[in-house]
Write a structure and sequence with these properties.
mainly alpha, two-stranded antiparallel ribbon, 6 helices, about 70% helix, flat
Length: about 200
C-alpha cells in the first residue's frame, strides 16, 4: 500500500509540474502536458520494475548467498585495502534486521493502541505526532539489539575477514555466464535506447 501511494504521488507530481511543449490542460499552478504524461508513465514503469526486481531477488536468494555473492564480486577491491568483508557483513545484518524491526514496530503499535493511542484519525500533524511514541521505543530496541549482537560477536571471538573460510564456496557455472550475458545485453539495450530513443519526449 505504501509503495502504491508513493508511486501515485510521484506520478502526480511529474504529471502536473513537468514542463513540456504540448499543453493538454492548464489551471491555477498545474499544467498537464503530453511530455509530462509520457515521462510519468516511464517513471512509474521504472519504479514498478525496481520493486518487482528487488522483491524477486530477495524472495529467491537467501541473505547469506546474497552477501557471499557481493563479497565475491567486490573481492578485487581488497587490493586497495577496501573492507569488502565488513561491507558484506553490514549488508547481511541489515537484511536480517529488516523483518525483526518490522515485527517490533507492529508489536509497539499494538501496545500503543492498547493504551489508547489512535493512528488512524486526525490531521497530518496529529498523525505525525502519534508516530513519535512508536519511533522512540523502536530506536531503543534497535540499539539494544545491536549492542547484544556486538557482545555475541565478541564472545565468539569474531575477527572480521582475516583468514576466514567458507562452508560453501561459490563456483562460476554456465548459469552465471548466461545471467552475465543477459545483464550485459540489457545494459547495452538501455544505453542504446538512451542515446537513440524510440519514443523521444
Amino acid at each position: 500500500m505504501t509503495c502504491l501511494l508513493c508511486l501515485l504521488f510521484t506520478a502526480a507530481l511529474n504529471i502536473f509540474f513537468y514542463r513540456g511543449e504540448t499543453v493538454l490542460w492548464s489551471g491555477w499552478v498545474f499544467t498537464v502536458t503530453k511530455e509530462g504524461l509520457i515521462f510519468s508513465a516511464f517513471l512509474a514503469l521504472r519504479l514498478v520494475l525496481l520493486v518487482i526486481c528487488s522483491s524477486l531477488l530477495t524472495y529467491t536468494t537467501t541473505p547469506v548467498s546474497l552477501t557471499d555473492g557481493i563479497e565475491s564480486l567486490l573481492s578485487p577491491l581488497k587490493w586497495v585495502r577496501f573492507p569488502v568483508h565488513e561491507l558484506a557483513l553490514i549488508m547481511s545484518i541489515a537484511l536480517r534486521f529488516i523483518p525483526i524491526l518490522l515485527d517490533e514496530t507492529e508489536r509497539i503499535i499494538n501496545a500503543q493502541k492498547a493504551r489508547g493511542a489512535n493512528f488512524d484519525t486526525g490531521g497530518v500533524g496529529k498523525r505525525i505526532g502519534a508516530i513519535v511514541p512508536v519511533l522512540i521505543p523502536l530506536l531503543l530496541s534497535a540499539f539494544r539489539r545491536a549492542d547484544e549482537l556486538g557482545d555475541a560477536m565478541d564472545a565468539r571471538c569474531y575477527s572480521g575477514g582475516k583468514a576466514r573460510t567458507k562452508y560453501k564456496k561459490l563456483r562460476f557455472s554456465w548459469r552465471d555466464l548466461l545471467a552475465a550475458l543477459l545483464l550485459a545485453a540489457l545494459i547495452g539495450g538501455i544505453v542504446v535506447l538512451r542515446f537513440f530513443p524510440v519514443f523521444p519526449l
